[in-house]
Specification:
Layout (H helix, E strand, L loop, with lengths): L16 E6 L11 E16 L7 H13 L2 E8 L8 H19 L6 E5 L9 H5 L2 H7 L5 H7 L8 E7 L2 E8 L12 E6 L8 H10 L16 E6 L9 H17 L7 E9 L2 H12 L2 H8 L5 H9 L11 E4 L2 E5 L2 E2 L4 H10 L2 E7 L5 E8 L3 H8 L4
Parallel strand pairs: 3-4, 7-8, 9-13
Antiparallel strand pairs: 1-2, 2-3, 2-8, 5-6, 6-7, 9-14, 10-11, 10-13, 11-12
Length: 392
Amino acid sequence: MTALSTIPEHVPLPAGFRATGLHCGLKSQGRPDLALILADEPVTAAAIYTQNRLVGAHVHVCRDHLLRSGGLVRAVLVNARNANCATGEKGIADARHCCDELAKRIGCPVEQVLMLSTGPIGAPLPTEKITSHLDALLGRVDDDGGMDFARAIMTTDTYPKAVHHAEYGVQVTGFAKGSGMIHPDMATMLGFLLTDATVDGASSGGVLRAVADRSFHRVTVDGDTSPNDTLLLLASGRAQSDAPATVLTATARELARHIAADGEGATRLITVVVRGAPSEQEAAHVGRVIATSPLVKTAIAGRDPNWGRILSAAGRAGVPFPAQAARVWVGTAEVYTEGVPHPEREDVAHRHLLDERDIEIGVDLAAGNAEAEVWTCDLTKDYVQINADYRS
């Protein structure tokens, strides 16, 4: 299990990108709520979206704009504290209006501007608050504005999520927001991967999906999928070098782990390791079932190494395996081996849950050679409290 990285005070942006964020009046107490990524020139872009049947207005607009622009983007505008979802045709028109106003100011076709929204569902988008701050937003944008962007896209997040990797002559910077309503039915609520590498436009969608399958598709907080989930890949090509998928994936995996660690009310980041599966996809599926089990998550909240709940969740995942040959561990303590429980080791497992913030639970299915990791968090009383009065 790799330790979770610390979020930096400053995050570099790849060549060709600038960013910023400010307060436009959507959040209280002057907190930033409007964000911008601006490319110096049109860049190659790809996106994947939620699989929820209910989708936010921005999903319709992004799909249309990327199709019309041939996958080229100059700017990405993001607002927090309003999802602009379940707002009908007016919500779509409002998102288009914001894109149009930004496009006029930067001198590009409107289809090269994307807009993303996140927050409570069902309220009209306050377009005047957004458009009246576009000039100020453009006046602040620069190549040192990454953390301002990360802070402005937050909703119930307790900290901004930004990760930077530089390898093989290319840079990748990733941003994400997400704390609740997180489940791998696409990605997370909002995610952004920026790189100065060259990514072929025809293959960019496939590259992004492969990255998401090993990162954002393996994080879950509560089993609920947001209708606004969107993951963007933007590639400026300024490094004149291809981006190895390993660098993009490493950035995305680290962001996914931060999302799990910052789950609403969470006190523990949980890495669920599944080994001995027939395939990687089946290992990931079993991991997701374990990671979404409220019985597993509440046991960990109570620091109870209840391995029976872990094995039982694996057993209902629909992947055949010989339960009598399986192994289960919590931290370094193997608490079940081939049909034999080890109660004498549960104190070590309990200490792991008690003393460590980043914990590992795992199961070996003894049904193959494939493995996968899934990331989640414990389920606490605070999660209930946060979501009981989310809109009030």
